[in-house]
Amino acid sequence: MAKGAKTTFRCSECGWTTLRWVGRCGECQAWGTVEEETAAPTSTVTSPAPVATAAQPITEINVESAHAVPTGLSELDRVLGGGLVGGGVILFAGEPGVGKSTLLLETAALCADAGPVLYVTGEESTGQVRLRAERLGALAPKLYLAAENSVAPLVSHVDAVNPGVLIVDSVQTMTSPEVTGVPGGVTQVREVAGALIRLAKERGITVVLVGHVTKDGSIAGPRLLEHLVDVVLQFEGDRYSQLRMLRAAKNRYGPTDEIGCFELSDSGITGLADPSGLFLTRRAEPVPGTCVTVTLEGRRPLIAEVQALVASSYLPQPRRATSGLDSSRVNMVMAVLERRANVRISNADVYASTVGGVRLSEPSVDLALALAVTGSVRDVAVPRDMVAIGEVGLAGDVRAVHGISRRLSEAQRLGFTRAVVPANSEVEVEGLEVVGVDDLGAALRAALPPDPR
């Protein structure tokens, strides 16, 4: 070993390092993923070298190349902050089968109208990608396909095509001849990503890297990868639902509190400018055990419906089943209902879910859940034109939530005429009757008719 070289051991899953070998990673607790890694000796003296571009006063910097160019998909542009930026590197991650390649292929076809786009696939053949593009209607003369698993041939394709956008699907399948290691390992992913980032910055092209995720939903590979790129996008969705959501975990060119909504179908993936209708059940008459609420996904208000079913139980320990809701939050709300509002559910099975496969984890859903459970117990229904927004505390109080004016404006736009909100909200919306409540008992009296029993 060369003098000064240092041997460390690194986890191939999460990038955790240690000075000695261990069988189990101390960070992600994975077995058999710690591999030996030799670092080259470093010098403490840095010699001056020629610069590529001389430093300039900030007032003289040209910002034309930093402007975002729209992709043609409004929901994607919303999350990106306006579109794609030349020289930017985007890490696009999501679970298998969620629709990452479908969305990027349609985006590539739209961007190809303005200039050449190179789509490099390391997981499929070009024929397979062509067949999918035909099915999606994503054929464009300036969309180029290449099947490669090495960075060196990829750079040759870039030299030949000179694209404005480069899509690499996926970064875990690419390898670099400069380093050793298996494809998808920490060393290979770090080197491949570094080479593609340098390529993007030197040539001013937008690079989109598709990334795999681990079992817990985090991006596979070293965490350093997320720090190096400019934008980190998470594509989420239930495989049994048509709804897909795009979130920005990191964005140097725009906000990180915007979401994009898409609908996945056999003919492709389309943006949903108004997705609230997916989360409501259309019925002629109100049904006991349902309540509508307004949740905020980033800056975007979404109308969603919470459903609850309370049934007699013959088990020593009654069932508690949830779908689309935080189970611990549901259990807390039920405990508050029984202790503070005298709603007897300790000996009953309780099933709580959302409509349309949407995931609601915001505390503002508590009040709607409480009304749905109580309505199911009493067999009375919340009025169809009413929404409920508020967080329920352990003392039975109804707490304020942020963005209440945006939530109520969305409810009024969709035809709701009454809203039950925390008493200290102090907001007025034309055409909407706002009822402020201090505690859970007042909310039940305002939203539900008296118990017929």
Q: Could you give the distance between the termini?
A: 84 Å
Beta-strand fraction estimate? 25-35%
Helix residue percentage: 10-25%
Q: Output the CATH class name of the largest domain.
A: Alpha Beta
CATH topology annotation of the largest domain: Rossmann fold
Judged by helices, strands and strand pairing, the structural class is: alpha/beta
Q: What's the CATH architecture name of the largest domain?
A: 3-Layer(aba) Sandwich
Number of strands: 23
Question: Main β-sheet, in a few words?
Answer: 9 strands, mixed
Q: How does this model look, in words?
A:
Helix content is 24%, strand content 26%. With 453 residues, the chain is α/β, with parallel strands linked by helices. The strands form six sheets. It has a nine-stranded mixed sheet with strand order 8-7-9-10-6-11-12-13-14, sandwiched between helices. Helix 7 packs across helix 8 (366-378) and helix 8 (366-378) crosses helix 10. The radius of gyration is 27 Å and the shape is elongated. The termini are far apart. The model has no long low-confidence stretch (mean pLDDT 89). Keywords: ATP-binding, DNA damage, DNA repair, DNA-binding, Hydrolase, Metal-binding, Nucleotide-binding, Stress response, Zinc, Zinc-finger.
